[in-house]
Amino acid sequence: ELKVEQNPLFLSMQEGKNYTIYCNYSTTSDRLYWYRQDPGKSLESLFVLLSNGAVKQEGRLMASLDTKARLSTLHITAAVHDLSATYFCAVNMEYGNKLVFGAGTILRVKS
Amino acid sequence: DAGVIQSPRHEVTEMGQEVTLRCKPISGHNSLFWYRQTMMRGLELLIYFNNNVPIDDSGMPEDRFSAKMPNASFSTLKIQPSEPRDSAVYFCASRTTGGGEQYFGPGTRLTVT
Q: Beta strand B10-13 with B31-38: parallel, antiparallel or unpaired?
């Protein structure tokens, strides 16, 4: 059974600081997704990582995938308040169309 | 495209009543997913369909829950009878089978009193 673990589950950081959220998964997969959820809102797709070594960047966020280590990272550079949200990683089951989501990381950026 | 459409957006009902949630996926997407999100249990996959056929319903909590997809543009999730522990936000999502991301609808916030 595929398990997806995120850490930390809660992150409080100062504006301007850098930090990394980690996503580990337990079985083979080469497709990983990052989503953002604002309070009371739906999930919004941030990044789609489809191969080993994939790196995607959008603004202050950069995501990477290491399929050999079964690890993805979401790096935050010079955090700003607008980045406060919950971030989920999700891993595609090796066979089929099902995603398994991590528990989510609640990010709070303090000014 | 209008994105994934869900209705109603909010539903308040009394215990024992039947509740029907509706979803219209993005046109051209052939996979549809129903999720439930609560503070205690996080985001749970209830059931998903490929080409209107249920593929995996292992996440459906019990027989009170049922889901249908009569055609490519419409799906329902029904709870009968509803219970207070069913209170949650229910999301519908759709995607193509080519490996792209799932697109989520706005959700239905269900409160069962």
A: unpaired
For chain A, which residues score pLDDT lower than 50?
none
Biggest alpha carbon–alpha carbon distance for chain A: 44
**B16: helix, strand or coil:** coil
The whole-angstrom distance between B14's CA and the closest CA on chain A is 23
- Asked if B97's CB is within 8 angstroms of A97's CB, the reply is yes
Nearest to B46 by CA among A101, A29, A36: A101
**Cβ contact A10:A21 at 8 Å:** no
Q: Does A56 touch chain B (CB under 8 A)?
A: no
Distance from CA of B45 to the nearest CA of A (A): 8
Q: Residue B1: its pLDDT value, please?
A: 64
What are the pLDDT digits (tens) for A43-54? 999 999 988 888
Kindly determine whether residue B56 and residue A98, on different chains, have CB atoms separated by under 8 Å: yes
Q: Report the relative pairing of strands A43-49 and B65-71 from DSSP bridges.
A: unpaired
